[in-house]
Amino acid sequence: MSKYWKPGSERPRTVLVDDEEGGVLFLSSPPSSSGFGHSSLERQRQRLPVYKYRTAILYLVENHATTIIVGETGSGKTTQIPQYLKEAGWAEGGRVIACTQPRRLAVQSVASRVAEEMGVKLGEEVGYTIRFEDQTKPNVTKIKFLTDGVLLREMMDDPLLIKYSVIMVDEAHERSLSTDMLLGLLKKVQRRRPQLRIIISSATIDAKSMSTFFHIRRRNIGQAAEDPTPSELPAILSVEGKGYNVEIHYVEEPVSDYLQAAVNTVLSIHDKEPPGDILVFLTGQDDINAAVQLLTEDAQNNGLLVLPLFSGLSRADQDLIFSPTPKGKRKVVISTNIAETSLTLEGIVYVVDSGFSKQRFYNPIPDIENLVVAPISKASARQRAGRAGRVQPGKCFRLYTEEYFVKEMPAEGIPEMQRSSLVSCVIQLKALGIDNILGFDWLASPSPEAMIRALEVLYSLGILDEDAKLTSPTGFQVAEIPLDPMISKMILSADTYGCSEDIITIAAVLSVQSIWISVRGAQKEFDEVKLRFAAAEGDHVTYLNVYKGFIHSGKSSQWCYKNYINYHAMKKVIDIREQLSRLLRRLGIVLKSCERDTQVLRKAIIAGFFAHACCLEEFSPNGMYKTIKSSQEVYIHPSSVLFRVNPKWVVYHSLVSTDKHYMRNVIAIDPSWLIEAAPHFYQVRKPNPAPY
Ligand SMILES: Nc1ncnc2c1ncn2[C@@H]1O[C@H](COP(=O)(O)OP(=O)(O)OP(=O)(O)O)[C@@H](O)[C@H]1O
């Protein structure tokens, strides 16, 4: 007797072809609509291409440990499959169905759509978890959307992911660092827990290589006879059919300025095309703001409502993107690639694709990670086009030639694993007890240089010992904190310096995109206001001043508005700070304040960031610094309160690269503190012996 079919309802009525190679293709008759009501949402659900495959999907999931589902964008994979699984009983007996997404925005929006379709309150039967936000209820939530990073963290407490019956790894083609780690780990879990079902889904994935990867050869580990193990051969299902048609348009000649070309295309759509909102893909906050400004100059008179979309946008601004377009207006959403996958913005009919995105590239030799504007892959281009045609036919305007798309654009992007720092990845795997990281079952191997560099960084921070094992307690504690290991080390060191209360405020501010509101046309006023908070020691201490002011104002939105401070970001800071203080209490750390002893504060920051020390080049007219570690040329970012102040010695939080490498969030230091914090990393250079 199969274990999940509801009595009398949805057993497969067409016998499926289950080919022994693991390549499975079929069509089965859909279940009768009995049990479904006839509201318009239910009719919409039944119109989706994936609906025809409902029985097939359930059959495969029951009979195969892993099912790989490939289907066009908008065919209904993300929103429907978790519901089918729930309807078929996979969430009974306290079990949970998980669906992971690479991006937080997608997690939130898909969860609220599924809750709406099921007619339940978000956070109850359907919930979501992203870092620092948990909208689920134990023993109530049956379908849970979460980022792949959050699921990795959950593995630290529950290595076999016991509470989940099925884990659907959605948008697997994105090959984010967390997705790749998760896939390797899930394969391990499956060996130990054959009853766990995995679904891997995407519109553009190499199903065959994924299938080869997941073809596990299970060790014989006594299963109960009444609980037959599913086939070890992954099944592949191709969902044919798509939502609505999307007409693709290419430029005839390559464009030299994609930003201007995007703006011109929006204006031309507005001029010539029937009503419908527009989604534009640019690369980052700077070019998005520039495009918003260019379009807004015209917008007053021409009926455009222009909205930016990037990660770190406040909840209120985010809600504007999803809210219905006012009558007589045409909404233009200008976005980074965060809107590329899984999102449905209802009014969008037109997509403008610049062909570029900001991508992380890591060079392990100087240990520098850059965000670089780089061409996208065909897989991304298809995802972008797929944001049109979700609720009606659409058009996609690609700002590159068809020849370029066909002949030059790579089929897939480089996995993030192969172009980013592996520090966080190594620490997570170590915390999960995986010691031989190079021997881990990677979908694509990371570079040995990056791996060695990560081990070196973690060793220098005292997180790993000489045998590359997590140190106790520091290493284990750092692994518990869901932040970059350097920030986590800074937080833990603050305990020694007696300033953890202040440092968690700084850590919370560093975890949100920016607490300042970007001001167009009011730069002078903004600079003046910022000066009121500016601390001579640098940005981190300035943030403490802002936080104090905010608390003092009674957390007032008016106060924020007057001071060019992002109210929603500050609310997020309060929230993250609260979670960090709870976490520290759990680690047995008592919070203490150093009452603005800025020397002590900076020493705690250096304990995490000593490797980011730089010295101003003597006689440099333009404020050039060199990193101590690798003599890399860097400059203080104009957004820093130390811009043009140029103290001799500084430590930075992160680097951004445009025309130069810029340090963001900078503090002035005394070089002797570096030796105090990291004697194993720095040595005082002895003067050359005197010539005789
Ligand atoms: N918030 C929403 N509002 C209106 N319709 C929606 C919404 N979310 C989903 N839909 C409808 O459901 C369809 C399927 O969406 P779903 O995200 O499940 O597709 P998908 O196959 O996972 O696509 P993708 O690969 O692009 O994520 C959409 O094309 C749209 O018609």
Provide a count of the helices.
Answer: 23
Q: How helical, in percent, are the residues?
A: 25-40%
Let me know the number of strands. Answer: 21
The side-by-side strand order for the widest beta sheet comes to 4-3-5-2-6-7-1-8
Fourth-tier CATH superfamily name of the largest domain = P-loop containing nucleotide triphosphate hydrolases
The major sheet is characterized as:
8 strands, mixed
CATH fold name of the largest domain, please? Answer: Rossmann fold
Approximate shape:
globular
Q: Stretches where pLDDT falls below 50 for ≥5 residues?
A: 1-38, 221-226
* Bound small-molecule species: adenosine-5'-triphosphate
Gyration radius, in Å: 26 Å
Class computed from helices, strands and strand pairing:
alpha/beta
Q: How many structural domains does the protein architecture include? A: 4
The CATH class of the largest domain is Alpha Beta
Q: Which percent band covers the strand fraction?
A: 15-25%
Blueprint (SSEs and pairs):
Layout: H1 40-47, H2 54-63, E1 66-71, H3 77-87, E2 96-101, H4 104-118, E3 126-130, E4 133-135, E5 143-147, H5 148-157, E6 164-170, H6 177-192, E7 197-202, H7 207-214, E8 235-239, E9 246-250, H8 258-272, E10 277-281, H9 285-302, E11 304-309, H10 315-322, E12 330-335, E13 348-353, E14 356-363, E15 368-375, H11 378-385, E16 394-398, H12 402-408, H13 423-431, H14 448-460, H15 474-480, H16 485-497, H17 500-511, H18 523-533, H19 539-552, H20 557-562, H21 567-586, H22 598-609, E17 613-616, E18 625-627, E19 633-636, E20 649-657, E21 661-668, H23 671-677
Parallel strand pairs: 1-7, 1-8, 2-5, 2-6, 3-5, 6-7, 9-16, 10-12, 10-13, 11-12, 13-16, 19-21
Antiparallel strand pairs: 3-4, 14-15, 17-18, 17-20, 18-19, 20-21
The protein binds adenosine-5'-triphosphate (ATP).
Residues 48, 71, 73-80, 113, 203, 243, 341-342, 344, 346, 386, 390-391 line the site of adenosine-5'-triphosphate.
